[in-house]
Design brief:
By secondary structure, the chain is of the alpha+beta class. It has 23 helices and eleven strands. It has four domains: 90 residues, no CATH class; 41 residues; 193 residues, no CATH class; 76 residues. A hairpin with a 4-residue loop joins strand 3 and strand 4.
Length: 517
């Protein structure tokens, strides 16, 4: 019943803002159908829309709530796929979502922190400096003079998100039933991932912890500044952090006036992304322009500042190695290796012919090499890959959905800063260096040091296990009990032998580590 009411709400918003007309009008232009033209005229009866189409789409997404606002945020970075007027309007969703009443924000702060505004702050700006889909931000000054930013969660978010997610799950089930392509995209698993990320955003303490981890990862690096959290003033619906000063990444005129080196900034953006993904396996996954500033003062002048850490992505060692090998194979135009990796990882069925998949990947990617970013649309590449992989039953991996989204954001930012940036040339050396660090004697020594704590616990148990196995071997048993004892003895003997083999390898590895260190 709840999903039905939400669906009716969505249909009402679509009708109110005339999005149905926009959709049919686009289909009419592409298909030139008399039936569609007639339908469009009938739909216009009794309705008149004076606002531009971009404004109508933005206002409709705002009316539908945080999930739809986030969808608009992602679309706003793809100016190569959207008309300029629509992209300009959707860009307002990044940090100019209508604010909620400041009195509600102040009441939330006082209730959560257990003190009055005057008891916490020397000064508090009631007008928010930024307002987004989940929360809004106010500037303030703590008693003692420290400048801070206060982030306050929007009221009623949990109920709205749960209704939309229920509707998305129903839609995903329908897609899986009626479409083979839909099943390959695993829509229900994708919705579950989206569910986790959205609910994580509703806990601002989790966001503060994400920020602290990213800050540690880039401690001492000039490339990226992460604001410090004021932990004594952090709660699930309110967090307080140091105030940072910078220019929004999409304010190109202001960046030019401040004499920011945009080409260098674009290259650093690529380095930051690949550092987060491949060195740390922990990356900021909501990098739309509303969350990125460029420092215009202090020691970080001309470098990035990241904000809003509600969504972060993590990658396992397997994911990192697999992705790095794929990227390097692409950069080297080794399409055979790309095909083999897809089969080895299980993305494509084991029965897939590697030469056929290789030819399909080559046909998609080869036209895009040796061209500046302004001539490359990652969206079009992904679309062509989707079409080419359809006949190979290649599956989209849900755990990489955030990474795919972040790549789209990175491309949008790079296109604004330096359209001539060669993404391939910039990224290839970084990945090659990273891969070299993952193999060879130094990598072996590093991995042995990391595993040494486990071996310190396991190795002392070997004599006891061997003694227990020998003791049981000499005891008489009969019937079923004897069989069970023998099976247990075999298992323990095999385990002991494996541990002894591992011990030998460990000793040789430690010797090698000493020789190369």
């Amino acid at each position: 019943m709840t999903s039905l009411l939400r669906l009716l709400t969505i249909l009402r918003v679509v009708w109110r803002f005339g999005l149905d007309q926009l959709a049919i009008d686009g289909a009419r232009r592409s298909l030139d159908s008399r039936l569609l033209s007639t339908g469009l005229r009938l739909l216009r009866l009794g309705r008149r829309f004076d606002a531009p189409r971009g404004q109508r789409i933005r206002e409709a997404l705002e009316s539908l709530g945080p999930i739809f606002v986030k969808f608009g945020q992602v679309l706003s970075t793809r100016r190569d796929l959207l008309p300029e007027d629509i992209a300009d309007e959707l860009a307002l969703l990044q940090d100019q979502v209508p604010a909620f009443d400041s009195a509600i924000a102040i009441a939330t702060i006082e209730r959560s922190l257990g003190n009055s505004i005057r008891g916490i702050f020397e000064h508090f700006e009631s007008t928010p400096v930024a307002s987004a889909s989940i929360a809004q931000v106010h500037f303030a000054r703590l008693i003692g003079g420290r400048e801070v930013a206060v982030k306050v969660l929007r009221p009623g978010m949990l109920q709205i998100i749960d209704k939309d997610l229920a509707l998305l799950r129903r839609f995903a089930q329908v897609v899986e039933r009626v479409s083979s392509d839909g099943r390959r995209l695993k829509p229900r698993e994708v919705v579950d991932e989206f569910d986790n990320y959205l609910h994580d955003e509703l806990d601002l303490v989790r966001e503060a912890a994400n920020a602290a981890q990213l800050r540690r990862n880039f401690q001492g690096s000039p490339l990226l500044l992460i604001p410090e959290m004021v932990w004594d003033l952090c709660r699930s619906d309110v967090i307080v952090m140091e105030r940072v000063y910078g220019i929004p990444i999409n304010r190109m005129a202001r960046l030019h006036e401040a004499k920011i080196d945009l080409k260098q900034l674009s290259r650093e953006g690529v380095e930051i992304f690949f550092t987060q993904v491949f060195r740390d396996g922990y990356f900021h996954a909501d990098m739309h322009p509303g969350n990125i500033l460029v420092a215009d003062r202090g020691p970080h002048f001309g470098h990035y500042i990241a904000l809003d850490f509600g969504i972060v992505g993590t990658l396992s060692e397997f994911d990192k190695n697999y992705l790095a090998q794929n990227f390097l194979a692409f950069f080297r135009r080794d399409y055979r290796r790309v095909a083999e990796l897809h089969i080895e990882s299980g993305w494509a069925p084991a029965s897939t012919r590697a030469d056929s998949l290789e030819a399909a990947v080559r046909g998609v990617c080869e036209p895009f090499f040796d061209r500046p970013l302004k001539e490359i649309s990652l969206g079009q590449v992904l679309l062509r890959l989707f079409q080419a992989s359809r006949r190979f039953n290649v599956e989209i991996q849900p755990q990489l959905v955030l990474l795919q989204k972040t790549l789209l954001n990175i491309e949008g930012l790079g296109r604004q800063l330096d359209p001539d940036l060669d993404l391939w040339v910039t990224a290839k050396p970084f990945l090659e260096n990273w891969m070299q660090e993952q193999v060879g004697p130094k990598a072996l020594a590093r991995n042995l040091r990391r595993e040494s704590e486990r071996w310190a616990v396991l190795l002392p148990q070997l004599p006891r296990l061997a003694h227990a196995a020998l003791k049981r071997a000499g005891q008489p048993h009969s019937g079923e009990a004897q069989t069970e004892q023998l099976e247990a003895l075999v298992r323990e003997t095999r385990l002991t032998r494996r541990w002894l083999q591992a011990l030998t390898i460990l000793a040789l590895g430690l010797l090698l580590a000493l020789l190369v260190s």
